[in-house]
């Protein structure tokens, strides 16, 4: 069968933005220089400052995609799946997130990459894998959670520890919710809704106390 020229053109056009962005990332210097210095999900404040409005995908997807892009700029990380694995994510998350975000991009690749480089220059200087390990350590013990409940949130159920750990993972360690040690690998819609309600109920004082608990594991 002779290929339909129009169909071929449409397929190539659909994949062109993705290819152009990949090439643009291949041509830039890896920043940060270590993969460990890239979070699984870009911090909210940096997304708001540099990337908001550049992509029509959900905010959480774009924040993850930005992290994948920074990983993709590193030598040897030549696919979105590899970028995800380099950050400790499921390869499928890399493929799916890249497809969603590149297809809904609202700006040209060069402008997105420029914004990404500005963002990268303001990433906190830290090893994010170390922060993730601290949360894993907290998940395996209960003393800190008991103390936090007694001092800051009386009446909290023991089962809410999973939500607390997920909050620390996603907000303090900037990890992806799917990899949180406090929850199943893939949270269903109901589980995410419960977590969001819990996270929104945390007061500034409670959040600060939780962050201190994580820092104490340093």
Report on the biggest sheet.
Answer: none
Report the end-to-end length measured between terminal Cα atoms. 64 Å
The structure class reads mainly alpha
Q: Give unreliable regions as ranges.
A: 5-16
Number of strand elements? 0
Q: Using only CA atoms, what is the Rg?
A: 19 Å
Number of helices: 11
Strand content is under 5%
Q: Quaternary arrangement of the chains shown?
A: single chain
Order of helices and strands: HHHHHHHHHHH
- In helices, the fraction of residues equals 55-70%
Global geometry? elongated
Average pLDDT across residues?
88
Features:
218 residues, mainly alpha, 0% strand
How is this structure best described in words?
The chain starts with a helix and ends with a helix. With 218 residues, the protein is mainly α. α2 crosses α6, α3 crosses α4 (80-86) and α3 (59-72) crosses α5. Helix content is 61%, strand content 0%. The model is unreliable at 5-16 (pLDDT under 50).
Task: Give the topology, please.
Blueprint: H1 5-26, H2 44-50, H3 59-72, H4 80-86, H5 91-103, H6 109-120, H7 128-139, H8 143-152, H9 161-172, H10 189-201, H11 204-215
Helix pairs in contact: 1-5, 2-6, 3-4, 3-5, 4-5, 7-9, 9-10
Précis, in short:
This protein is mainly alpha-helical.
